[in-house]
Design brief:
- WD repeats lie at residues 220-261, 303-335, 433-466.
- Residues 174-464 form the CDC20/Fizzy WD40 domain.
- One of its GO terms (biological process) is positive regulation of anaphase-promoting complex-dependent catabolic process.
- Keywords: Cell cycle, Cell division, Mitosis, Repeat, WD repeat.
- With 487 residues, this protein is of the alpha+beta class.
- The chain has helices at residues 3-17, 20-28, 52-63, 66-95, 111-115, 150-157, 480-483, and strands at residues 172-175, 188-190, 195-200, 203-208, 214-219, 227-232, 238-243, 248-252, 257-262, 269-275, 278-283, 287-292, 300-304, 310-315, 321-326, 331-335, 343-345, 352-357, 364-369, 375-380, 385-391, 396-401, 407-412, 419-423, 428-433, 440-445, 451-456, 460-465.
- The strands form 7 sheets. The protein has a 4-stranded antiparallel sheet with strand order 1-28-27-26, with no helix packed on it. Strands 2-3-4-5 form a 4-stranded antiparallel sheet, with no helix packed on it.
- Helix 4 (66-95) runs antiparallel to helix 6.
């Protein structure tokens, strides 16, 4: 090949491989040093700037339909499970890990400790002085046709848990005009009779989940009042309505008539909680009134412990303790006889509205703080001990436990307006649901414990399927059983 032609060809190739800025600077320079490179007479094109794996990946993504992409994600999750199972099988055969069940790759329940419990003996020489019998779990029987150990056989035969799938889209959306965007109110509740009560402005509406029929229960505008809280009793026959003027009205839902109107508060009633035939009400006047609806209104208990508005009230499942949260950042626990709180928790840095008692562990209480706190905290009310806490990243507005599994759901406000499903005690996020454009201030659970309804200042009610009906198989009747497993 001609030497001059070869030099021009190499200069052209180098010029094409240079970045744009380098080419411009080279063109404006007055002198260019000649390139003296010895090479053969074959021209081999360079493709250093091409990333073929990325290009083929984008080509496949563009050619796929959304349904195919969803199937590809499912296939990738299945392959991740196969990878975990294969890794556990290798640890059994090479390291003698003794793993009998396939860990779930999507949970964080300390699975790494199971897989790495024998990693300290890696590359360490040991001499076995005692002969291990052939019926040992880690040994292979001389009569077996498989080279795998008994532990690995159990691992391969272990059943796989079905993948948990929670829909990110609500299965129903209802308009709720005049649903107030007020953190301190509780305007949505779901009864045992599958009726949803919603306070909209000065009216309370009932929506039937069976027939989708809407009826207006009451209208307080004739009295110049408005609704600030609603709460069903356990049987789903009576609904209590708290008002802005400090009244608590008891309504018969089936008959649509007001049974009684209770006085005693000097400011709005933002929190209500039934305990059998007793009704507890919390107000901006910082007082909690506990009254039996069967007795005259004069027979009441006044619980004074908060220094600011009471915004959260919940009775324990055994009907023995009442938890109250206030705008003074305090979480108080009361018993059924004393007029003073038996426990007081002051770890939150903002208002405590979100309160929920666990139906699975006796004495386990969960609470959430407002914008300045953003934390979920768990308490052992049997001993007064603080358990766990996690920063959710946004204002915690509501909490509710699943009736069938050791999970809970939280709704949030500033600044993400999301709904989170948590697994307890690992506090792993099972799902994150979005859709509301305002703070998710209201939450209620369906009577079957499978669906939830959320309400926000965007004046919509959204229904989600978040919990399953599969009952938890773990035997942990008391919260004390749980402490021995938490490190």
């Amino acid at each position: 090949m001609d030497q001059e032609y070869e030099r021009r060809l190499l200069r052209q190739i180098n010029h094409q491989n240079l970045p744009t800025e380098a080419r411009l600077s080279k063109c404006v320079s007055a002198t260019c040093s000649p390139v003296s490179v010895k090479s053969g007479d074959r021209f081999i094109p360079t493709r250093a700037g091409s990333n073929w794996s990325i290009n083929f990946h984008y080509a496949n993504e563009n050619c796929r339909s959304p349904n195919q992409n969803h199937k590809a994600k499912d296939a990738s999750s299945d392959s991740s499970k196969d990878t975990v199972a294969y890794a556990a099988l290798l640890r059994n055969e090479l390291l003698g890990a003794g793993i009998e069940t396939v860990p779930d790759p999507h949970t964080d329940d300390r699975r790494h400790t199971v897989l790495s419990q024998d990693s300290h003996s890696l590359f360490r020489y040991t001499v076995h002085t005692k002969r291990v019998p052939f019926d040992s779990d880690n040994e292979v029987s001389p009569y077996s046709l498989s080279p795998l150990s008994n532990k690995s056989h159990k691992l391969l035969r272990s059943p796989r848990k079905p993948a948990r799938k929670i829909s990110k889209i609500p299965f129903k959306v209802l308009d709720a005009p005049e649903l107030q965007d007020d953190f301190y109110l509780n305007l949505v509740d779901w009864s045992a009779g599958n009726l949803l009560s919603v306070g909209l402005g000065a009216c309370v509406y009932l929506w039937s989940a069976c027939t989708s029929q809407v009826t207006r229960l009451c209208d307080l505008s004739v009295d110049g009042d408005s609704v600030t809280s609603v709460c069903w009793n356990e049987r789903g026959s009576l609904v209590a309505v708290g008002t802005h003027k400090g009244y608590v009205q008891i309504w018969d839902a089936a008959g649509g008539r007001k049974l009684t109107s209770l006085e005693g508060h000097s400011a709005r009633v933002g929190a209500l909680a039934w305990n059998g035939e007793q009704l507890s009400s919390g107000s901006r006047d910082r007082v909690i009134l506990q009254r039996d609806v069967r007795t005259p209104p004069s027979a009441e208990r006044r619980l004074q412990g908060h220094r600011q508005e009471v915004c959260g009230l919940k009775w324990s499942p055994d009907h023995q303790h009442l938890a109250s949260g206030g705008n003074d950042n305090k979480l108080l626990v009361w018993n059924s006889s004393s007029l003073l709180p038996v426990q007081q928790y002051s770890d939150h840095l903002a208002a405590v509205k979100a309160i929920a008692w666990s139906p699975h562990q006796h004495g386990l209480l969960a609470s959430g703080g407002g914008t300045a706190d953003r934390c979920l905290r768990f308490w052992n009310t049997l001993t007064g001990q603080a358990l766990q806490s996690t920063d959710t990243g946004s204002q915690v507005c509501n909490l509710a436990w699943s009736k069938h599994a050791n999970e809970l759901v939280s709704t949030h406000g500033y600044s993400q307006n999301q709904i989170l499903v948590w697994k307890y005690p690992s506090l792993t996020q099972v799902a994150k649901l979005t859709g509301h454009s305002y703070r998710v201030l209201y939450l209620a659970v369906s009577p079957d414990g499978e669906a939830i309804v959320t309400g926000a200042g965007d004046e919509t009610l959204r229904f989600w399927n978040v919990f399953s009906k599969t009952r938890c198989t773990k035997e942990s009747k008391s919260v004390l059983n749980l402490f021995t497993r938490i490190r």
